[in-house]
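I have a small job for you when you get a moment. Would you make up a two-line entry for one protein for me to read? No commentary is needed, just the two lines. Write everything out right here, beneath this request.
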Amino acid sequence: MARTAEAAAKVVADTAQAALQVKEDLSSLTNELRGRYNELLTQRQTQVTEIREDRDAMRDLSTTWTERITTITESLERISKDATQKVSDMASTLKPIVSIFRSPQAAGIEFGEATLDVLLKTHLGEQCYVRKPRLLAVGQDVVDFAIKLPECLVPIDSKFPTVQYRAWVDASNEVELKAAWRAFRDQLIRQMEATAKYIKPDAGTTDYALIFMPSDIIYQQAFLTQQVYDQENPIPQRAIQLQVFGCSTQTLFPMFNLIRLGLRNLKIAEDVKGIRSQIDELSNVFTRIFQDTEWKTLRTHVKQLSDHVERMVSEKGSVSRMAEAMKRLADFSHERSESNRTSVPQTPDDLLALQRENQ
């Protein structure tokens, strides 16, 4: 019986010991799990923070790239517009040259206009000529250019019989040469007659007009040669009758120089005239001032005032006497201050002696 009780007590003790060990193991495991949980929670918070930072960085990067892409797009659009405008300007510039490969007649007209336009713009300036002036229009026709002089316009046409001249150049024998020359001559004279319609002195033009030849050689052959193929050249005589004179690149240069020189001289003359007018006006103003009675009275008062001031500052004047009196007063005040400074008692005996004298 006693042995059974001891065995039961031992079992109870072992069970209690085992339960305590299990409790300690559970507590240790719980602490370990709690620490692991806290560690995982910290890692999660760290990862969430890093993800948020990465997200903000990606957002800033996306914003920056969007702004850069917008700027690049605007720059490309601006470059595209500039390139389109330059291509358009180049096309306008090349239009007369491209037109050479189209209709020969139209090509000659446009090429002559382009050449003359460049000459006028380069050597005179856009302010010195007018393109297609409607003032000189005759029906639907109008002269190509008009050079602006101070008091009139000089009509200058650039249309040229290109087809006839090309046939003349390409002629292969003497018969074709003579026939082509006559066709070119007649067509050029008809063009000169058409240009003569633009001479309108009542509308402000000169009593002559110019017709531009796109080549100096053509100008010499047409307007300076008296005979062609042993035949008299009627173009120079007809030019005098119509007052329509031919010109070319080389012959226009002296005219342009004269026009520029004349305009400059006119400008100088206008400036000199304006300066002379201002000088005359200033002279009239001074004349009126010196002739004015009040000006004479003022001059008299000023002279009297100047004489009075000279008398006042002279040796016997009131200003000089006042200065001498102020100097004497200053010397007297100085002497008094010196005498008072020497009469001040220096010792007690001197003070007693001074008191006795006062009594």
The two ends are 153 Å apart (CA to CA). Residues 124 and 256 are 7 Å apart (CA to CA). Residues 22-91 form one domain. The first helix runs from residue 2 to 98.
